[in-house]
Amino acid sequence: MSQLSKIVDYVNPFSQVKASERATTATNLDLKNPKDWVWFINNGTGSIPVTPENIFKLSAAYACIKAKSEDIAMLGWDVIKRTANGREIAFDHDQYFLLHDEPNPDTSSFDWRRSIISYFMSWGNGVSLIERNRRDRPVAYHLQHPNTFQAVKEEGTKEVYYKDFLTGEVYDPFNVIHIKGFDFGTGWAPSPASLHKAILSTGLSMNTFGANFWKNGTHLRGVLEVPDYPEDDDQVELLRNSFKEKYSGVEKAAEIGILWGGAKYNVLDMNMSDAQYIEQADHTAESICGIFGVPPHRVGLLKRSTNNNIEKQHDEYVQFGLQPTITNLEQEVNRKSIRLSERGTLSNRINIAGLLRGDTKAQGEFIDKMMKWGVYQIDDAREYVGANPLKNGIGKRAMVPGNMNPLDRLDEVIDAMIESKLKAKADGNSSSTGTE
Fold first, then answer.
1. CB-side neighbour CA atoms (13 Å) of 57
2. Can you tell me the distance from the alpha carbon of 332 to that of 125, in angstroms, rounded to the nearest whole number?
3. Residue of 76, 174, 310, 435 with fewest CB within 10 Å of its CB?
4. Separate counts of helices (H) and strands (E) for the chain
5. Other C-beta atoms within 10 Å of 7: how many?
6. For 171-189, b where at least 16 C-beta lie within 10 A, e where not — what string?
7. How far is CA 354 from CA 75, 358, 384, 414, 415, in A?
8. Which residue, of 236, 270, 304, is where some domain finishes?
9. CB 296: neighbour CB atoms within 10 A?
């Protein structure tokens, strides 16, 4: 392979370059190495590199990752068992405690889920090692950092295995929980930082520009023009530094500049309005929301949201923003943690019902409809609002229209109604006969 081909392969985010080789940062670049020259090309269009770590410096990206990961992490996660009477939570299953409460002794379920989904959203891959006992049952889930842990696909056999490049350990896929984005057949997904360099680099550059804009002052931007060029470069630096020291910075923005000796100050750059800085910042933030599948209102961008459409946007976010990631995680855990003999009767489920309840009025209307048509029993409705079941099992009865009769006595009620009508008709006929 030629040197150019090697460099192109290194730049390509879909190539099978090891994570340990790709994990280059600005602090350990060797400018004598050609691969490090193209690192700047591979990590951004501007002077600021775009890496999974750096995108957390973008407020919109940070807010999206935080919102989505915590929205999923706060939901109940249960092991569900199918029974003759329907479904019930399998509290006694060995995976219930790990998923619902404590994946490992050092981590809560909330923190574990938030972390693995944050890795998934920023690095493109969320990885956790499964610790198993002698019976091959999972007893703990341990997070791994995707910067040093990667799936590798053998060129010949196409088999996938996982490798920790810090320790050199190799792991069977059966012992790894791996949620990922588009992997393009490689087994390891590229990060959003590599797929969306342009828009993310724009956001990072605008952050730096905005900081420098205020740091250096919002006025007196330009060059000093003097009649005669100073004989000594030190004099140039002295003039520049003294002027910058006196007038640069936000706290000196309103100072009155004084020049002497025929010097002039010429403004050269555009102001923030001319550069449409605010408009570009809004566009960048909305584009980042699109990348992560989070509606703008969820991260505080309310420019296009109203009271009429924000609830609809929320429902769409739950269904099309959260549900795919939830399904990704649920199916991966089912594959690796539920026995083959249990498939079909047991599964894990992250309950999103709480996110779809709406306001109090919408909840009342929903419960009313579900009870009116016999879908919910009284105890189901009480559980929905967080209340305890009724005593003696009297809340385990479904109701249907017709003065809300018990479903199991519906035939009796109908027979009684028919008998009553027939009796009334017979009484009416007998009365008319007696009168004649």
1. 18
2. 13
3. 435
4. 16, 13
5. 16
6. beeeebbbbbbebeebbbb
7. 8, 9, 9, 38, 41
8. 270
9. 21
Strand arrangement, sheet containing 125-132: 138-144, 125-132, 176-180
Q: How many domains does the chain have?
A: 4
Q: Which long-range contacts (CB under 8 A, 24 or more apart) does 381-384 make?
A: none
Please name the residue that has the structure tokens 């969820």. 298
The domain boundary residue, chosen from 298, 322, 356: 356
CB 111 within 8 A of CB 119: no
Residue 327, token pair as written in the block: 């399904």
Show the beta-strand stretches assigned E in 8-75: none
Kindly report the length of the chain.
436
Amino acid at the residue 136: D
**Quick one: CA dihedral 332, 334, 336, 340, positive or negative?**
negative
Report the C-alpha gap between 183 and 192 in whole angstroms.
12
Contacting residues for 346 by C-beta, under 8 A, at least 6 apart: 79, 80, 81, 82, 90, 93, 338, 339
Do 188 and 255 sit in the same domain of this protein? no
Q: pLDDT tens per residue, the chain (436 residues)?
A: 444 444 444 444 444 444 444 444 444 544 444 444 444 444 444 557 788 888 898 889 999 999 999 999 999 999 999 888 778 889 999 999 999 999 999 999 999 999 999 999 999 999 999 999 999 999 999 999 998 898 988 888 888 999 998 889 999 999 999 999 988 888 899 988 888 888 888 888 877 777 766 665 555 466 666 677 666 777 777 777 777 776 665 555 556 666 666 667 666 555 555 556 677 788 888 899 999 999 998 888 887 777 677 878 888 899 899 999 999 999 999 999 998 888 889 999 998 877 776 667 777 888 888 887 778 888 888 877 777 888 888 888 777 676 666 667 777 878 888 888 888 877 766 665 555 5
Is residue 170 located within the same domain as residue 79? yes
61, two tokens:
């990206």
* CB neighbour list of residue 23: distance below 8 Å, 6 or more residues apart: 147, 148
Residue 27 one-letter amino acid: T
Burial of 383 (C-beta count, 10 Å sphere; 0-12/13-18/19+): middle
Q: Closest Cα to residue 235, out of 214, 273, 261?
A: 261
Greatest Cα pair distance, the chain, in angstroms, is 138
Cβ–Cβ under 8 Å, residues 191 and 126: no
Asked if residue 287 and residue 247 are part of one domain, the reply reads no
CB half-sphere exposure, 142, CA atoms < 13 A? 8
Supply the DSSP symbol for 193.
H
